[in-house]
Structures are given as structure tokens and as C-alpha cells.
Specification:
Layout: E1 7-17, E2 26-36, E3 40-44, H1 51-59, E4 66-71, E5 74-75, E6 86-89, H2 101-111, H3 116-129, H4 145-157, E7 163-167, H5 175-192, E8 196-200, H6 203-209, E9 212-217, E10 220-225, H7 227-232, H8 237-242, E11 247-253, E12 259-261, E13 264-266, E14 275-281, E15 286-289, E16 295-304, E17 309-315, E18 318-324, E19 336-341, E20 346-350
Parallel strand pairs: 3-8, 3-9, 6-7, 7-8
Antiparallel strand pairs: 1-2, 1-4, 4-5, 9-10, 11-12, 11-14, 12-13, 14-20, 15-19, 16-17, 16-19, 17-18
Helix pairs in contact: 2-3, 2-4, 3-4
Length: about 350
Amino acid sequence: MNAAPDAGIEFREVTKRYGTGTSAPLVVKGISFTVPRGTLTTILGPSGCGKTTTLRMIAGLESPTSGTILVDGRDVTTLGPADRNVSMMFQSYALFPHMNVVENVMYGLRMSGIPKAAARARAVDALRNVGLVGYDARLPGELSGGQQQRVALARALVLEPAVLLFDEPLSNLDARLRREMREEIRSLQQRLKLTVAYVTHDQSEALAVSDQIIVMDHGIIAQQGTAQDLYEFPSTEFVAGFMGEAMLFPARADATGTVALGPLRIKPRQGMVEGAVKVAVRPEAWHIGPPGTGLGARLAKLAYLGSNYEYTFETELGPIFVVSADLGRVLDLGSDVGLGLADHGVSVVQVT
């Protein structure tokens, strides 16, 4: 069996069914993908799409029902977690509360038979890599959530795995710390040239850290590619609606490929054949203009979020959600406006 060149992780027609018999739930449905060595791939999707099961199969915590899994060019389909050279970082961190920081980081090395002095030296080096110099003697309970996360990351890195796995690693953190930690993870991944598979349901997180994004929907891969590919050129209605929380509008493309959305006209960047389409419009793509221009709209709801306003307008197309960064011109409820579209944040998919 030949592995793909430079593949850190490779899935070949992998299926996972919980239980036996054809009526047992099929949660992963014959998926194939490659995570190139030294890159970060995010597996993205809503709850129940199969992304965590996929990650657990890479780790060896779940066995595939069929198909082949390769890690660093080696077939690991039937191997247990300890034989895969894979480290997994859970959202709970799973630190031992009675052990200090350096003991927590050393633990996996000591269990592998590494002498105490060598294990401690490697642990201290791993802590330096995550910016925790001088924290060796502290207990987990004396650390902030972000510091605990760094300890868990050091504990995973110290084992020098071929592949590092993250399962919703930032879900327990507040917004500011989440942004800092995703930057930290991305910086470490690039500096140490780690092969990473990263699971999240958060689109902005995926866009911020990924070389490649795999969007899953009901156990299949809906689309995979770069962040820009998926955001600007979604290939399915599901991906168009999921990436960037876009609203979907039914429309039609004419013989020239131009799409009519109420009074608005859109010329998609990719070619369209005549027929039914769906237009995905992200909240930031709407321009608010004077009444009598574009799509007529009346303001029904508004909310101030500090850096922007969220508006909901009633239109002939139904309610439209708009995010506006214009804090100098705040609309009053009941205001009549005209809505236009920016060049970015709008995508069109053919309805098959």
C-alpha cells in the first residue's frame, strides 16, 4: 500500500457505524482526505456531522468499520492509541490536579520509560515553547484557563508526536483568550512544522488557523479546500449557508449567467447555467443606502455590539440580517433604506 507523498494523515474510504447490522447508525460515510505533513487541517461542521468521530478514529480511540487510516505513511487502522505516535488535546485539558506543572508535562514521558532527569529537561523545554517559563512548581488550580491550556499543549508537544489532534480546544475560553490561544496554536504549528488535525464548529476559528478546511455534513465531506476557497466559492448550498453564517435566498440565473435577487443583479465570479440558484449573502456584505435605491427595506430590530450594529430589515425577500460597522450613522427603528450588495461576501450556487 503506497501512502500519498508528504501525507501526515490519510483517510481512504473510511466508514464508521455504531453497532452491528445495516440498521445501526452510520456516522461517517466513506470519507477520503489527506492532511499534508507540517500543515493544519480543520474539520469543521455542526453538531452531529461526524467530525469528532473522525478525529477519534485518527487517535485510535474509535475503530473504523471499514476503510484505511495512515499516519505519517504507516497503516494504523488496527493499531491502538499508544502505537500511533499521535497526541490528542481535549477541551477539558485533563490535567492532574495533585501534580505541579512540570510533573503534568513529564507524565507521558515517564510512562514511556524515559528517565526522570531527561523527562524533566524535555518538559521544561516544552514549557518554554508555550511561553510558561518559571511555572514549573505551580499546581493547575493556581493557573488561569489560558495557562492550563498551555500546560496541556506542552504535555502533548513533549511526546514529539507525528500528529497533534485538537478537539474543540478553545470552547471553554472567553472571547479574548480564545483569539490569543488560536494565534498561539497557529504560531506553534508553523514554527515547529507540526501536522495538526483540528476539530471545531466555529467558522471564524477555522478560517483563522487553517491551511485546509474540511466541511462535514451528516457524515460526508461537503467540501474541502483553503479558507478562501470555501468562503468565496462554496460548492453546495450547505457550505454556502454554513461558512460565515450567510442567509440563503432562492433566485434564478438567466441565459447570460446573471442572477436576479429582487431588484438587485449579481454577476457570479463562476459561470452559471440558466436555472434555479441559491444566493448566499453574509451579514457584512449588505450596503445601507438611501431609500429608493437597491432593495427597499424597513428597519425592524437593532442591537449595539460595541464594534458594530446588528440590524434586521423587513424586505420583499423576507427579513434580512445586516452587520454594519458604521457607528457614526445609527438608524432609528422604522427607518426606510435601500440595500445594495458588496463585491465580497456574496456567493451563488447552482440548485441541482
